[in-house]
Protein backbone atom coordinates (compact mmCIF):
# COMPACT_ATOMS: atom_id res chain seq x y z
CA UNK A 1 0.00 0.00 0.00
CA UNK A 2 1.37 3.40 -1.01
CA UNK A 3 1.98 5.76 1.90
CA UNK A 4 -0.09 8.91 1.38
CA UNK A 5 1.80 12.15 0.78
CA UNK A 6 0.85 15.44 2.39
CA UNK A 7 -0.76 16.64 -0.84
CA UNK A 8 -2.89 13.49 -0.93
CA UNK A 9 -4.56 14.16 2.41
CA UNK A 10 -4.29 17.90 3.05
CA UNK A 11 -7.62 18.87 1.45
CA UNK A 12 -9.44 16.24 3.49
CA UNK A 13 -7.64 17.35 6.67
CA UNK A 14 -8.58 21.00 6.15
CA UNK A 15 -12.18 19.97 5.50
CA UNK A 16 -12.29 17.80 8.61
CA UNK A 17 -10.77 20.56 10.74
CA UNK A 18 -13.51 22.94 9.57
CA UNK A 19 -16.14 20.40 10.62
CA UNK A 20 -15.11 20.91 14.24
CA UNK A 21 -17.17 23.89 15.41
CA UNK A 22 -14.50 25.70 17.40
CA UNK A 23 -16.36 29.02 17.58
CA UNK A 24 -14.72 31.46 19.97
CA UNK A 25 -17.30 33.90 21.34
CA UNK A 26 -14.81 35.61 23.62
CA UNK A 27 -16.70 34.18 26.61
CA UNK A 28 -15.11 31.02 28.08
CA UNK A 29 -18.54 29.76 29.15
CA UNK A 30 -19.87 29.68 25.57
CA UNK A 31 -16.72 28.97 23.55
CA UNK A 32 -16.71 25.37 22.39
CA UNK A 33 -15.01 22.71 20.35
CA UNK A 34 -11.32 23.38 20.92
CA UNK A 35 -10.78 20.32 23.12
CA UNK A 36 -12.27 17.86 20.65
CA UNK A 37 -10.41 19.36 17.72
CA UNK A 38 -7.08 19.46 19.57
CA UNK A 39 -7.40 15.84 20.71
CA UNK A 40 -8.22 14.77 17.15
CA UNK A 41 -5.06 16.53 15.94
CA UNK A 42 -3.06 14.81 18.69
CA UNK A 43 -4.46 11.42 17.65
CA UNK A 44 -3.40 11.93 14.02
CA UNK A 45 0.10 12.96 15.12
CA UNK A 46 0.44 10.02 17.50
CA UNK A 47 -0.76 7.71 14.72
CA UNK A 48 2.50 8.29 12.83
CA UNK A 49 4.78 8.15 15.87
CA UNK A 50 4.85 11.56 17.54
CA UNK A 51 4.81 11.98 21.28
CA UNK A 52 2.32 14.78 21.84
CA UNK A 53 1.49 16.96 24.81
CA UNK A 54 -2.08 18.12 25.29
CA UNK A 55 -2.35 21.22 27.49
CA UNK A 56 -5.41 23.10 28.67
CA UNK A 57 -4.50 26.78 28.92
CA UNK A 58 -6.08 27.97 32.14
CA UNK A 59 -9.69 26.99 31.39
CA UNK A 60 -11.36 23.59 30.91
CA UNK A 61 -11.58 22.67 27.25
CA UNK A 62 -9.09 25.26 25.98
CA UNK A 63 -7.05 22.61 24.23
CA UNK A 64 -3.52 23.00 22.83
CA UNK A 65 -1.31 20.33 21.28
CA UNK A 66 2.48 20.30 20.97
CA UNK A 67 4.70 17.85 19.08
CA UNK A 68 8.43 18.01 18.37
CA UNK A 69 10.30 16.65 15.36
CA UNK A 70 13.97 16.27 16.27
CA UNK A 71 16.71 17.88 14.20
CA UNK A 72 20.33 16.75 13.85
CA UNK A 73 21.73 15.65 17.24
CA UNK A 74 24.81 17.84 16.81
CA UNK A 75 22.92 20.96 15.64
CA UNK A 76 23.54 24.19 17.50
CA UNK A 77 20.61 25.95 15.81
CA UNK A 78 17.53 26.95 17.75
CA UNK A 79 14.23 25.21 17.16
CA UNK A 80 11.56 26.52 14.78
CA UNK A 81 7.98 26.91 16.03
CA UNK A 82 5.24 26.26 13.47
CA UNK A 83 1.98 27.43 15.04
CA UNK A 84 -1.68 27.49 14.06
CA UNK A 85 -4.79 28.27 16.09
CA UNK A 86 -7.77 25.94 16.04
CA UNK A 87 -10.46 28.39 17.17
CA UNK A 88 -12.52 30.46 14.74
CA UNK A 89 -14.87 33.40 14.99
CA UNK A 90 -18.59 32.52 15.11
CA UNK A 91 -20.65 32.21 11.95
CA UNK A 92 -24.41 32.66 11.45
CA UNK A 93 -25.50 29.76 9.24
CA UNK A 94 -28.49 31.65 7.83
CA UNK A 95 -26.12 34.18 6.19
CA UNK A 96 -24.08 31.56 4.33
CA UNK A 97 -24.70 29.74 1.06
CA UNK A 98 -23.23 26.57 2.66
CA UNK A 99 -23.19 25.23 6.21
CA UNK A 100 -20.23 27.15 7.70
CA UNK A 101 -19.06 24.01 9.52
CA UNK A 102 -19.54 21.58 6.65
CA UNK A 103 -16.03 21.81 5.23
CA UNK A 104 -17.67 21.37 1.83
CA UNK A 105 -15.32 20.86 -1.12
CA UNK A 106 -16.98 22.19 -4.26
CA UNK A 107 -16.40 24.54 -7.19
CA UNK A 108 -12.65 24.31 -6.59
CA UNK A 109 -12.83 25.63 -3.01
CA UNK A 110 -12.86 24.32 0.55
CA UNK A 111 -15.72 26.16 2.26
CA UNK A 112 -16.36 27.01 5.88
CA UNK A 113 -15.50 29.10 8.87
CA UNK A 114 -11.76 28.99 9.37
CA UNK A 115 -10.93 28.09 5.77
CA UNK A 116 -8.45 30.98 5.59
CA UNK A 117 -8.28 31.86 9.30
CA UNK A 118 -6.59 29.50 9.79
CA UNK A 119 -7.51 25.86 9.36
CA UNK A 120 -5.92 25.91 5.92
CA UNK A 121 -2.48 26.37 7.49
CA UNK A 122 -3.35 24.02 10.36
CA UNK A 123 -4.20 21.36 7.77
CA UNK A 124 -0.99 21.96 5.83
CA UNK A 125 1.04 21.73 9.04
CA UNK A 126 -0.72 18.55 10.11
CA UNK A 127 -0.32 16.88 6.71
CA UNK A 128 3.36 17.76 6.52
CA UNK A 129 4.09 16.82 10.13
CA UNK A 130 2.63 13.39 9.38
CA UNK A 131 4.59 13.03 6.15
CA UNK A 132 7.91 14.08 7.68
CA UNK A 133 7.49 11.59 10.52
CA UNK A 134 6.42 8.72 8.24
CA UNK A 135 9.40 9.41 5.96
CA UNK A 136 11.86 9.53 8.87
CA UNK A 137 13.00 13.01 7.83
CA UNK A 138 15.52 14.78 10.06
CA UNK A 139 15.02 18.49 9.33
CA UNK A 140 17.91 20.98 9.52
CA UNK A 141 16.72 22.00 12.99
CA UNK A 142 14.17 20.82 15.52
CA UNK A 143 10.61 21.73 14.52
CA UNK A 144 7.90 22.28 17.13
CA UNK A 145 4.34 21.95 15.81
CA UNK A 146 1.80 23.78 17.97
CA UNK A 147 -1.98 23.82 17.53
CA UNK A 148 -3.44 26.46 19.81
CA UNK A 149 -6.60 27.76 21.45
CA UNK A 150 -8.17 31.22 21.85
CA UNK A 151 -6.27 33.27 19.28
CA UNK A 152 -9.50 34.92 18.13
CA UNK A 153 -9.93 36.51 21.58
CA UNK A 154 -6.33 37.68 21.95
CA UNK A 155 -4.87 34.43 23.27
CA UNK A 156 -5.72 35.08 26.93
CA UNK A 157 -6.64 31.38 27.30
CA UNK A 158 -4.19 30.26 24.65
CA UNK A 159 -0.76 31.56 23.66
CA UNK A 160 -0.61 34.30 26.31
CA UNK A 161 -1.41 31.82 29.08
CA UNK A 162 1.05 29.27 27.72
CA UNK A 163 3.90 31.76 27.53
CA UNK A 164 3.27 32.90 31.09
CA UNK A 165 2.56 29.52 32.72
CA UNK A 166 4.29 26.94 30.50
CA UNK A 167 7.35 28.61 28.97
CA UNK A 168 9.03 25.18 29.04
CA UNK A 169 6.92 24.25 26.01
CA UNK A 170 8.96 26.77 24.03
CA UNK A 171 12.42 25.76 25.26
CA UNK A 172 15.06 26.16 22.57
CA UNK A 173 12.80 27.96 20.11
CA UNK A 174 14.36 31.00 18.44
CA UNK A 175 12.05 31.61 15.47
CA UNK A 176 8.37 31.10 14.74
CA UNK A 177 6.14 30.91 11.66
CA UNK A 178 2.40 31.49 11.80
CA UNK A 179 -0.53 32.90 9.89
CA UNK A 180 -1.51 35.75 7.55
CA UNK A 181 1.56 35.74 5.36
CA UNK A 182 2.87 34.01 2.27
CA UNK A 183 -0.25 34.68 0.15
CA UNK A 184 0.16 36.09 -3.34
CA UNK A 185 -0.66 39.54 -4.69
CA UNK A 186 -0.57 39.62 -8.50
CA UNK A 187 0.60 42.91 -10.02
CA UNK A 188 1.13 44.06 -13.60
CA UNK A 189 4.66 44.97 -14.62
CA UNK A 190 5.51 47.74 -17.12
CA UNK A 191 6.85 45.11 -19.55
CA UNK A 192 3.42 43.50 -19.81
CA UNK A 193 4.30 40.53 -17.61
CA UNK A 194 2.88 39.86 -14.18
CA UNK A 195 4.64 39.36 -10.88
CA UNK A 196 3.22 37.50 -7.92
CA UNK A 197 4.37 39.13 -4.72
CA UNK A 198 4.20 36.77 -1.75
CA UNK A 199 3.65 38.87 1.35
CA UNK A 200 5.63 37.63 4.34
CA UNK A 201 4.39 39.13 7.57
CA UNK A 202 7.28 40.68 9.51
CA UNK A 203 5.28 43.20 11.55
CA UNK A 204 1.93 43.69 13.26
CA UNK A 205 0.20 46.71 14.67
CA UNK A 206 -0.83 46.49 18.30
CA UNK A 207 -4.11 44.92 19.33
CA UNK A 208 -5.32 47.29 22.03
CA UNK A 209 -8.87 47.74 23.24
CA UNK A 210 -9.57 50.79 25.38
CA UNK A 211 -12.49 51.50 27.68
CA UNK A 212 -13.60 55.09 28.17
CA UNK A 213 -15.60 55.94 31.29
CA UNK A 214 -17.34 59.12 32.36
CA UNK A 215 -19.17 59.61 35.63
CA UNK A 216 -21.66 62.38 36.32
CA UNK A 217 -24.66 63.13 38.49
CA UNK A 218 -27.74 60.97 38.08
CA UNK A 219 -31.04 62.75 37.75
CA UNK A 220 -34.45 63.08 36.14
CA UNK A 221 -34.41 63.28 32.36
CA UNK A 222 -36.72 66.30 32.36
CA UNK A 223 -34.38 68.57 34.39
CA UNK A 224 -31.67 70.91 33.16
CA UNK A 225 -28.48 68.91 33.58
CA UNK A 226 -24.92 70.11 33.02
CA UNK A 227 -23.03 67.06 34.33
CA UNK A 228 -24.17 64.31 31.98
CA UNK A 229 -21.91 61.23 31.69
CA UNK A 230 -23.52 60.23 28.40
CA UNK A 231 -22.73 63.59 26.86
CA UNK A 232 -19.11 63.41 28.02
CA UNK A 233 -18.52 59.95 26.58
CA UNK A 234 -20.42 60.68 23.38
CA UNK A 235 -18.36 63.80 22.77
CA UNK A 236 -15.10 61.95 23.40
CA UNK A 237 -16.13 59.12 21.07
CA UNK A 238 -17.09 61.60 18.36
CA UNK A 239 -13.73 63.37 18.59
CA UNK A 240 -11.82 60.07 18.41
CA UNK A 241 -13.93 58.80 15.55
CA UNK A 242 -13.35 61.97 13.54
CA UNK A 243 -9.61 62.12 14.17
CA UNK A 244 -7.08 61.08 11.52
CA UNK A 245 -3.68 60.08 12.84
CA UNK A 246 -0.61 61.16 10.87
CA UNK A 247 0.88 59.02 8.13
CA UNK A 248 3.93 57.19 9.49
CA UNK A 249 6.26 55.15 7.31
CA UNK A 250 7.64 52.20 9.27
CA UNK A 251 10.60 50.23 7.94
CA UNK A 252 8.42 47.24 6.98
CA UNK A 253 5.85 49.30 5.08
CA UNK A 254 8.55 51.36 3.37
CA UNK A 255 10.24 48.18 2.14
CA UNK A 256 6.94 46.77 0.87
CA UNK A 257 6.04 49.98 -0.98
CA UNK A 258 9.51 50.19 -2.53
CA UNK A 259 9.10 46.64 -3.91
CA UNK A 260 5.61 47.47 -5.15
CA UNK A 261 6.90 50.57 -6.95
CA UNK A 262 9.77 48.61 -8.47
CA UNK A 263 7.50 45.88 -9.83
CA UNK A 264 4.64 48.06 -11.09
CA UNK A 265 6.48 51.17 -12.21
CA UNK A 266 3.96 53.20 -10.20
CA UNK A 267 4.89 55.60 -7.44
CA UNK A 268 4.08 54.48 -3.89
CA UNK A 269 6.00 56.59 -1.41
CA UNK A 270 5.39 59.00 1.47
CA UNK A 271 5.44 61.80 -1.12
CA UNK A 272 2.71 60.23 -3.26
CA UNK A 273 -0.37 62.49 -3.13
CA UNK A 274 -3.18 60.67 -1.29
CA UNK A 275 -1.15 57.50 -0.91
CA UNK A 276 -4.08 55.54 0.56
CA UNK A 277 -6.20 56.15 -2.53
CA UNK A 278 -3.26 55.34 -4.81
CA UNK A 279 -2.96 51.93 -3.17
CA UNK A 280 -6.32 50.89 -4.59
CA UNK A 281 -4.49 50.44 -7.89
CA UNK A 282 -3.21 47.14 -6.44
CA UNK A 283 -6.73 45.82 -5.83
CA UNK A 284 -8.51 44.36 -2.86
CA UNK A 285 -5.51 44.16 -0.53
CA UNK A 286 -5.37 47.95 -0.44
CA UNK A 287 -7.56 47.95 2.67
CA UNK A 288 -5.03 45.84 4.57
CA UNK A 289 -2.00 47.81 3.39
CA UNK A 290 -3.67 51.19 3.83
CA UNK A 291 -4.43 50.40 7.47
CA UNK A 292 -0.70 50.07 8.16
CA UNK A 293 0.13 53.64 7.16
CA UNK A 294 -1.18 55.23 10.33
CA UNK A 295 -2.54 54.47 13.79
CA UNK A 296 -6.27 53.86 14.03
CA UNK A 297 -8.79 54.23 16.85
CA UNK A 298 -12.30 53.08 15.99
CA UNK A 299 -15.22 53.35 18.45
CA UNK A 300 -16.97 49.97 18.56
CA UNK A 301 -19.18 49.83 21.68
CA UNK A 302 -21.33 52.19 23.78
CA UNK A 303 -23.05 51.48 27.08
CA UNK A 304 -25.12 53.81 29.27
CA UNK A 305 -28.44 54.15 31.01
CA UNK A 306 -31.30 51.90 32.01
CA UNK A 307 -34.44 54.02 31.45
CA UNK A 308 -35.50 56.71 29.01
CA UNK A 309 -36.25 59.34 31.69
CA UNK A 310 -33.21 58.74 33.92
CA UNK A 311 -29.86 60.46 33.36
CA UNK A 312 -27.35 57.74 34.31
CA UNK A 313 -24.42 58.24 36.63
CA UNK A 314 -22.03 56.37 34.38
CA UNK A 315 -21.40 55.93 30.65
CA UNK A 316 -18.81 53.79 28.85
CA UNK A 317 -17.41 53.22 25.39
CA UNK A 318 -14.89 50.81 23.88
CA UNK A 319 -12.34 51.88 21.29
CA UNK A 320 -10.49 49.41 19.06
CA UNK A 321 -6.96 50.84 18.84
CA UNK A 322 -4.29 49.58 16.45
CA UNK A 323 -0.95 51.29 16.99
CA UNK A 324 2.13 51.15 14.78
CA UNK A 325 5.48 49.96 16.17
CA UNK A 326 7.24 52.75 18.03
CA UNK A 327 4.16 54.98 18.18
CA UNK A 328 2.72 54.12 21.60
CA UNK A 329 3.66 57.30 23.51
CA UNK A 330 2.49 59.64 20.75
CA UNK A 331 -0.74 57.69 20.36
CA UNK A 332 -1.63 57.85 24.06
CA UNK A 333 -0.85 61.56 24.20
CA UNK A 334 -3.22 62.18 21.29
CA UNK A 335 -5.99 60.11 22.87
CA UNK A 336 -5.65 61.98 26.16
CA UNK A 337 -6.03 65.27 24.34
CA UNK A 338 -9.08 64.03 22.44
CA UNK A 339 -11.00 62.61 25.40
CA UNK A 340 -10.48 65.61 27.66
CA UNK A 341 -10.23 65.81 31.46
CA UNK A 342 -13.63 64.37 32.35
CA UNK A 343 -13.24 60.96 30.72
CA UNK A 344 -11.09 58.18 32.12
CA UNK A 345 -9.39 55.61 29.90
CA UNK A 346 -8.04 52.13 30.62
CA UNK A 347 -6.68 49.28 28.51
CA UNK A 348 -8.85 46.16 28.68
CA UNK A 349 -6.71 44.27 26.15
CA UNK A 350 -3.25 45.49 25.31
CA UNK A 351 -1.01 43.41 23.07
CA UNK A 352 1.87 45.40 21.70
CA UNK A 353 3.09 45.93 18.16
CA UNK A 354 5.57 43.47 16.65
CA UNK A 355 8.28 44.07 14.06
CA UNK A 356 11.34 42.20 12.83
CA UNK A 357 13.64 42.65 9.86
CA UNK A 358 13.22 40.89 6.51
CA UNK A 359 16.52 39.05 6.43
CA UNK A 360 18.34 35.97 7.62
CA UNK A 361 18.45 32.28 6.78
CA UNK A 362 14.75 31.70 7.50
CA UNK A 363 13.70 34.46 5.08
CA UNK A 364 16.05 32.99 2.48
CA UNK A 365 14.40 29.60 2.95
CA UNK A 366 10.96 31.14 2.43
CA UNK A 367 12.08 32.88 -0.74
CA UNK A 368 13.78 29.74 -2.09
CA UNK A 369 10.63 27.69 -1.41
CA UNK A 370 8.43 30.18 -3.27
CA UNK A 371 10.76 30.42 -6.26
CA UNK A 372 11.07 26.63 -6.48
CA UNK A 373 7.31 26.45 -7.14
CA UNK A 374 6.63 29.84 -8.74
CA UNK A 375 9.46 31.35 -10.82
CA UNK A 376 7.27 34.46 -11.27
CA UNK A 377 7.15 34.95 -7.51
CA UNK A 378 8.94 37.34 -5.18
CA UNK A 379 8.76 37.46 -1.40
CA UNK A 380 8.32 40.87 0.18
CA UNK A 381 7.74 41.95 3.79
CA UNK A 382 4.51 43.53 4.93
CA UNK A 383 2.77 44.62 8.11
CA UNK A 384 -0.49 43.09 9.33
CA UNK A 385 -3.07 45.57 10.57
CA UNK A 386 -4.47 42.96 12.98
CA UNK A 387 -2.74 40.59 15.37
CA UNK A 388 -1.69 36.95 15.78
CA UNK A 389 -0.25 34.68 18.46
CA UNK A 390 3.14 36.19 17.61
CA UNK A 391 2.31 38.87 20.18
CA UNK A 392 2.75 36.25 22.90
CA UNK A 393 5.83 34.54 21.50
CA UNK A 394 7.90 37.72 21.13
CA UNK A 395 7.81 37.99 24.93
CA UNK A 396 10.12 34.96 24.98
CA UNK A 397 12.54 36.59 22.54
CA UNK A 398 11.25 34.52 19.62
CA UNK A 399 11.53 36.13 16.17
CA UNK A 400 8.16 35.83 14.46
CA UNK A 401 6.97 35.68 10.84
CA UNK A 402 3.72 35.00 9.02
CA UNK A 403 4.13 32.50 6.18
CA UNK A 404 1.15 30.35 5.17
CA UNK A 405 1.87 30.17 1.43
CA UNK A 406 -1.08 30.41 -0.96
CA UNK A 407 -0.99 31.19 -4.68
CA UNK A 408 -4.32 32.99 -5.10
CA UNK A 409 -6.41 33.76 -8.18
CA UNK A 410 -5.84 37.47 -8.97
CA UNK A 411 -9.57 38.19 -8.90
CA UNK A 412 -10.18 36.69 -5.44
CA UNK A 413 -10.93 39.27 -2.72
CA UNK A 414 -8.79 37.47 -0.15
CA UNK A 415 -8.99 40.17 2.52
CA UNK A 416 -12.80 39.98 2.57
CA UNK A 417 -12.72 36.26 3.40
CA UNK A 418 -11.20 36.79 6.85
CA UNK A 419 -14.14 36.57 9.30
CA UNK A 420 -16.41 37.01 6.28
CA UNK A 421 -19.52 35.25 5.01
CA UNK A 422 -18.83 32.26 2.71
CA UNK A 423 -15.22 32.04 3.83
CA UNK A 424 -13.37 29.65 1.54
CA UNK A 425 -9.93 28.80 0.21
CA UNK A 426 -9.05 27.50 -3.27
CA UNK A 427 -8.12 23.82 -3.35
CA UNK A 428 -5.24 24.53 -5.73
CA UNK A 429 -3.93 27.22 -3.36
CA UNK A 430 -3.83 24.73 -0.49
CA UNK A 431 -2.02 22.15 -2.63
CA UNK A 432 0.46 24.82 -3.76
CA UNK A 433 0.99 25.94 -0.18
CA UNK A 434 1.63 22.39 0.98
CA UNK A 435 4.32 21.91 -1.66
CA UNK A 436 5.95 25.22 -0.78
CA UNK A 437 5.81 24.54 2.96
CA UNK A 438 7.33 21.08 2.41
CA UNK A 439 10.28 22.66 0.58
CA UNK A 440 10.57 25.24 3.34
CA UNK A 441 10.57 22.73 6.21
CA UNK A 442 13.23 20.63 4.46
CA UNK A 443 15.47 23.70 4.31
CA UNK A 444 14.47 25.82 7.31
Automatic annotation (TrEMBL):
InterPro entries in the cross-refs:
ArgE/DapE_CS (IPR001261), Bact_exopeptidase_dim_dom (IPR036264), Peptidase_M20 (IPR002933), Peptidase_M20_dimer (IPR011650), Peptidase_M20A (IPR050072)
The answer on whether this UniProt entry bears the keyword Phosphoprotein reads no
Q: Which residues form the Peptidase M20 dimerisation domain?
A: 203-331
Check the record and name the SUPFAM superfamilies matching this protein: Bacterial exopeptidase dimerisation domain, Zn-dependent exopeptidases
Q: Which cofactors does it use?
A: Zn(2+)
Q: What domain of life is recorded for the organism?
A: Bacteria
Keyword Nucleus included in the entry's annotation: no
PROSITE patterns xref list: ARGE_DAPE_CPG2_1 (PS00758)
Task: Give one Pfam hit by family name.
Answer: Peptidase_M20
Key words, A-Z: Hydrolase, Metal-binding, Zinc
* UniProt family annotation: Belongs to the peptidase M20A family.
Q: What is this protein called?
A: M20/M25/M40 family metallo-hydrolase
